[in-house]
Amino acid sequence: MKRWLAPVVAAPGLAAWPAHAHMAGEEFSWWLVDPLALVLLLLVAIAYWRGSADKASRPQADSGRFRQRRWFFWSGWTILILSLASPLDPLGEQLFSAHMVQHELIMLVAAPLLVLSRPSAALLRGFPAWLGRLVGAILRPSGLRSFWSWLASPLVAWMIHALVLWGWHLPALFSAGLESTLVHVLQHLSFLWVGLLFWWALWRSRSRGSAAGVLYLFTTAIHASVLGALLTFSPAVWYSPYLATAPSWGISALADQQLGGLIMWMPSGLVYIGAALVEVNAYLRTSGRHARQRDIARGAEIQHVRQK
């Protein structure tokens, strides 16, 4: 596993732990924000701030890129705050559409920003020394690194992402998350972790000059859109707990589900397709650069032969 990714996977994911679940029987409040989620995210922010202030974590000859990565981190962190430690979290227990907004923000906005930020060096320096040593000890075994490398191969990451996305939207599992705090915690943790894995695998594929990322994104857009369309056009409510909560917001549970399906269908599909187009452009530019380099090398070789 790449050293820089481990704190991204572990530390922000802790913020999903204290998520509220099963609002039935409780009076909704816009201020019903879980303090533990907020505290954990603040601890991550403090660790990153301390580590990024350390000059040893800054590339001497690449300060512009370092500032860009820092912007990516704080943007991703802010999205996690909005998703897990704001009124959006308890609202998601009342409305399916709000729940979908929360999940899309985690998987499609926060996760890629955190992957792009590559905050490992800063976080490790900002963590207490004992925690940094523990992370290093965990990452040291070569077998574990090989396992994470396999896990982040495009095909494996794609399959895990699809399985988690479709699995959690099965009525039994999704409803269980509304009724059980533990299941709700597992749901949020898995969405964040899979989002990080998905975008990290894409980044690795792109850094190796592979065109697999284009197919990776287009096929994800297709199957995610199919799930959204099924939710949108279903004549029945999939998740029964919302039958008791959605009407209090002036919307039927079915209309709320249709809105949530549209949120999954349209905006998320556009994100995947937009990322795929970026990958196409990057691949064409890389291919063109390699072709020019080959032409230059061939021309130099021909010139050398003629000189002989």
Question: TL;DR of this structure?
Answer:
The chain is mainly α and 308 residues long. It has helices spanning 6-10, 35-53, 63-84, 88-91, 96-117, 120-126, 129-139, 142-151, 154-168, 171-179, 181-207, 212-233, 242-245, 253-307.
Characterization of this structure:
The protein has 308 residues and is mainly α. It has one domain (6-307). It is 75% helix and 0% strand. It contains 14 helices and no strands. The chain has helices spanning 6-10, 35-53, 63-84, 88-91, 96-117, 120-126, 129-139, 142-151, 154-168, 171-179, 181-207, 212-233, 242-245, 253-307. Helix 5 packs parallel to helix 14 (253-307). It is globular. The chain starts with 5 loop residues before the first helix and ends with a helix. Residues 1-25 have low confidence and may be disordered.
Describe the protein's topology:
Blueprint lengths: L5 H5 L24 H19 L9 H22 L3 H4 L4 H22 L2 H7 L2 H11 L2 H10 L2 H15 L2 H9 L1 H27 L4 H22 L8 H4 L7 H55 L1
Low-confidence stretches: 1-25
Domain module count: 1
The mean pLDDT is 80
Q: Gap between N and C termini, in Å?
A: 50 Å
Say how many strands there are.
0
Q: What coarse outline follows from CA principal-axis ratios?
A: globular
Q: How large is the count of helical segments?
A: 14
Give the helices and strands as they follow along the chain.
Answer: HHHHHHHHHHHHHH
Cα-atom radius of gyration: 22 Å
How much helicity do the residues have? over 70%
